[in-house]
Amino acid sequence: MMAVVDPTLELERELHEAGAAWVVGCDEVGRGAIAGPVAVGVSAVLAPCADIPAGLRDSKMLSEKRREELYPHAISWSHASAVGLADSDEVDRLGIVKALGLAGRRALVQLHEAGVRILDSVVVLDGSHDWLTPALTSAPRVLTRVKADRDCGSVAAASVIAKVHRDRMMIAFDETHPGYGWTGNKGYGSAAHYEALEALGPSPLHRLTWLH
């Protein structure tokens, strides 16, 4: 059984000590879904960072119930947080990488409006590919880090914030676009979801270019 790894603030504190006014954790959810938006969460922290809320981890390591419980703590722990979205039509028109960049830009704009000095920040981006910088006209330093959602507190917070935000959206779509099982699949391609597609055809939420 794989050992559970708790995130730390080691990287955030190193970046603050090196001169970053803000450290912004950044993570995406919904990239592999066949329906619904892609969401990019951001969690901005100033020095000194308060201790990470107990139990906060990468959203993929938490049950849906536990994510809901931790969501308000992740928001209140962050000095500022936001979720940017790119909808299914934008994913179809732009492709997933550019849609991620668009969602990330929208999230950073929200942080800017909340008073975060984006250009004085370092963004810690989960993964090895910087899909964010090409979407920005004036870009902060972006530091990619594999497993940052597991290892870095700010990115774990961003992961939970984005996941709960997007999941709540998908659950609400059960009322406006029923029959696809959004409450269970959240837009991902489960067997029951594909069966619903066969019976009902695609909804306005589906990424049509992903269904061929």
UniProtKB/TrEMBL annotation:
Belongs to the RNase HII family. Keywords: Cytoplasm, Endonuclease, Hydrolase, Manganese, Metal-binding, Nuclease. This is Ribonuclease. A divalent metal cation binds at residues 27-28, 126. Its EC number is 3.1.26.4. Residues 21-212 form the RNase H type-2 domain. It is found in: Cytoplasm. Manganese or magnesium. Binds 1 divalent metal ion per monomer in the absence of substrate. May bind a second metal ion after substrate binding. Transmembrane segments: none annotated. It is an enzyme of class 3 (hydrolase). It catalyses: Endonucleolytic cleavage to 5'-phosphomonoester. Its cofactor is Mn(2+); Mg(2+).
